[in-house]
Request: fold
Amino acid sequence: MRTDELGLAYGGGWLDRAGALRADPGWIADRLTDRESVLLPFWQDRCLVSAERSPVRLPAVEAAGLLGDADETVFLGLDSGRAVFAADLSGRAEREALELAGAAEAVDVRALVGGLGAADAAVQAYAKGLLHWHRGQRYCGGCGAATEARDGGHTRSCTGPGCGRLLFPRIEPAVIVLVESPGEPGRCLLARHRGAPEGSWSTLAGFVEVGESLEDAVRRELAEEAGVTVAGMAYQGSQAWPFPAGLMVGFRATATSTEVRVDGEELVDARWFTREELRARVAEGRSLGRIDSIDHHLLASWVDRRS
Reply:
């Protein structure tokens, strides 16, 4: 099943990323002067929006001044043959960036997701993540020389003599797990993370470490943070989470016992909830996780099950 069919935000974008074409500098240059091409402006990881809080989309050919002031311009893909680019104005003062783009304000993509279609949210998040990566890869980690963008912004190349290292956008995978109790009544384990508001509960999650499979990461994270071991697990789906570079991989797992021992570092509390308890929280107006996150999908799909 596709990510967008699961109802998850930031996936299912409509763009053809044109991997076979974007490596041609001449083709990219032609697209920037094509009257059909559009440009999405960003400032410090935030998309620039109109007074109606719609993301600004500029004709690329009419945005020469903005392109000249941009720190980086990247090619995102083709929308029914029309090229879509994103430009980063982070090096400018916020007011100047807004004026260059004819925008009203700079807004976090996550604050807009409820008012955007799924594909629009996916493209905005994709652009934000790619531009963020460029800002952190200005210099080669091997020789320290400056790097330059290639392939429409999907690669950076070291300019140092004798080096030539290629840098590619990195994804940081993390597992996120809905843990079920063994036996009846059916319950799931939710935790309160350090710094989270009182009464805020969520599923358990953590980054995959070097040398681990996704399944290894599930077992380690649950054992480290909550003292829980599992008898089995099943993949549920994944979600792009470019804030700044995550990929959330969802699992459902069954614990071997109901014993819980929180680590006191990442987690300050954890407890088992029945479906009835979670339905009561929803009736009180409390959300089941972030509405744009796979956390919400895991919880809502579990609550909707009868058993």
Observations:
- The two ends are 23 Å apart (CA to CA).
